[in-house]
Amino acid sequence: MAAHFDTEYQRLEASYSDSPPGEENLLVHIPDGNKSPWHHIENLDLFFQRVYNLHQKNGFTCMLLGEVFELVQLLFVVGFTVFLANCVDYDILFANKFVNHTDSSKVTLPDAFLPVDVCGASIRDNVAVMFVLMISGVFWLHRLIKFIYNVCCYWEIRSFYTNALKMSMAELPYFTWQEVQARIVEIQKEHQICIHKKELTELDIYHRILRFKNYMVAMVNKSLLPVRFRPPLLGESVFYTRGLKYNFELIFFWGPGSLFESEWSLKPQYKRGGNRLELADKLASRILWIGIANLLLCPVVLVWQILYAFFSYTEVIKREPGSLGARCWSLYGRCYLRHFNELDHELMSRLSKGYKASSRYMNCFLSPLLTVVAKNVAFFAGSLLAVLIALTIYDEDVLAVEHVLSSITLLGVCITVCRSFIPDKHLVYCPEQLLRLILAHIHYMPDHWQGNAHRYETRDQFSQLFQYKAVFILEELTSPLVTPFILIFSLRRKSLEIIDFFRNFTVEVVGVGDTCSFAQMDIRQHGHPAWMSEGKTEASIYQQAEDGKTELSLMHFAITNPQWQPPTETTHFISQLKERVQRETTGDRQTLTSLSGSEPRSLIANFLAGPPSLASLHLGRDGSLTDHGPVGVNDGASALRSLSVSSTRGSCSSAHRSAGHASFASRAMPGSSTDARTASSGSSVWEGQLTSLVLSEYASTEMSIHALYIHELHKQQSGGELSRHTWHRQDSDDSSDSVTEEGGSGGGNPNPRNLIPRSHTFPISTPISTPGPIPSSNSGPNPDRGPTPGQEVTPLQSNSQRRYGGNTDSVGPGGRVVRSERVPMGGWAEQGRGGRHPDTVPEEGSEDDMPPNTHKVT
Amino acid sequence: MNCRSEALEVSVEGRQVDEAMLALLHTILLHRSTGKFHYKKEGTYSIGTVGTQDIDCDFIDFSFVRVSSDELDRAIRKAVGEFKDAMGNGMDGMGQISLEFYQKKKSRWPFSDECIPWEVWSIKVNVVNLANEQERQICREKVGEKLGEKVINIVEVINRHEYLPKMPTQSEVDNVFDTSLKDVQPYLYKITFQITDTLGSSVSTTMRRLIKDTLAL
Question: Where is the protein found, in the record's own terms (chain B) (predicted)?
């Protein structure tokens, strides 16, 4: 540049004090001063999680106490075990050896204890014991440090509650999470917790708290995780334990070298399709190492599990031997049944409501053979027991005879077990109805269960979700042994699929970071045509969530968070569905008495009327009888209508006070045991809380009806053709093989070759509504495929939201997802890079063609 | 995460690196600086003036405006110099320099003060190698044009109405602004750089994360 413009606008050197005369009066600013400590929080994920945890644990003190006791318990378990193993002279206890007492002949407990020095020596000599002690010492110290760290962190959260949210710790248990959340949303306007947007939405908070859980739910939904096995003798079974889950999370989310670089962002190389094979190799070797580490640590973990199980369950078993026969929702079940964006307490209360019906359902299936055997065993055991007890009553010296006491105990246990196999004579079961009732609460079930409720196959499959507690404990105990092998042999083979999954289903949302795209609950992206989103969805089979998860999750979220404002098309879907449901329920009133209505109507009628035994009672009831006695159909339906018509909170509560009036619709449902939180404050007199609780009850009822309705509609729609919705999706193992050779990523399909469009054909063969739809699977065999039509259209994106699978979304100002072009995913970043390999003068526009890295600035 | 991130990317010749970097960094800082605050009684303050200065580049057909503060200029030149040294005088390579604006937050005793970033600008640099003088001439113009675009981009971003730390009171001014310079007062900033594709984060951050993760509930 030849021409030098000498334009140096220098500061005025003269006025060094920087205030020309009179300026003091002209320009005076007042600092904002509003220095709340809560603006601009660094790690919002952690922050919201802690806020949620503190709420779930009922405040700071409860949490603190709980943690302290846990620490003490740990010390006790280890200390007591070591003591029992080394410091007790069992010969004295069993009276094999006599104690030479001078004064009395009674053996006291302290006699059996070895002296401290002997005991200490024996501990010191025993290498294994020292090893265990050391390990647990390290473990305990770790817990202690963690505890102290947590106390500091949660103290901050506590002051957030009291100062910013204006909720004192004493009142905290009486607030529902929705209320806490509403306040957080409110104070965002004032404090700017999150700097990306002016206002937070409920979905943002959920996304942050449940980021990883959503991924897990999606992976289970797409049958990506190896949790189903076919061991030789046991048949098809599910193995998913806490240990396994921990390892999965370690590998994917937070362990060293995991796929995520921080809580909120996937590592950039995993977002690009180019070196997926390489990354898959890396992941596979990492899984191998973690598997080996598991194998090495297995003795330690095993000992720990056994000790823990022993101390936590023996007491329970002694107290109520039946408890082992009781059931619980399996870990897999919780993953399978969970909606996207469903918090723990929501899931738990839903599942607990379904518990009773589920156990009744499971009790329908008592094998007649076993019953006969059990009856006879119980008879013989009972007679023996009776004799022994009679003898004891006659003379208690009988008890002193060796083994009499223990045989009495054993016989007692035996009888209890047998009795659980003998059905109650006075109960009548109707499995189909029960299953429907269960469905109303758990919201998901494979298609082929309907109509097959009475079959053993259905029962067995249901028992994978709802297992015996004993089985649960047993699985937990064997988990340390089995986990390494699952990791090494089954998960490792899936590494490529996993890499593809994370790339295809991760989406960057402004203000939230990388989340699972399923969790956006976008019908268009992930809807399933067989689940009400016919015509609205554009998802390929690979992208569709199975079992109607997207649709049901969306309904669930919209119902639990009425203030949430979904994107327009979604709103449309929701309102349409609500309208239909409402119409059906209204129609019910007329058709109810005859019970002649076809599927959905009679279904809802049945559902609202409660179990079959109650149905007849309610049938004759007309609409005017709402204010006394049990709640009938009309009551529930009308309350529901009022709810769905006025979904804003204010008008709702008033509607409820009149319509609901101490009669929750949920009472129509048997087994709707409210969760602890509801129960605890149900008795409290606070009007406000009460209404919000009533609201949440209504919401859950409404959701139940919607779930039933959607399922019913789905059943009608899909008709005979159910092939795709197989419960097992057994192919998951086979497909992993096919994947490794074909490089495709069709995890959840019976028949990937036919159903999943291969990437090199797909972009051409699909109708192009938006330029260049995404192929569902990546270009495995030919990663360097030439630029496809969609590629040229990659312009500068507005960049608020990007989908790394290739299609590109952006979130508009209100957090709405605005769609822009979709791009095929095979290594576009790399092609861009190749385009401007630094050999020549950088051509014009070359930078602009590389979407991900350039020009975030728009 | 709770911070905006903006990315820029430029391809330049080896000798243009520092000028290009200076141009971009100075442009950003020009908009992220205020005059010195002078606090008065009753919690009010007045703001001093900021001088600006046109700078012409030697190797690029480009000139830019910067805050006429020699101290600030020195600090940035130093950082850019280090960056250039780290890139080496090798023929071509990749690097990333990032300018991070943060604010400090006082924490209670067991933890040290947190520095929470609210805006990060990362500038990716590709160094290309040119064969002859003619290409250099073309490059000189092209890079100039590109830089012009980037400056417009930067200004657009800054013009958006987005989060900025609130104006502090006198006691807290150090938590938001860098008050060490005597003639200008930029927001607290930090310049870091990364060379080539060391895609994985550095060892120290991994360790820190590991510890934090194990401690988390």
Answer: Preautophagosomal structure
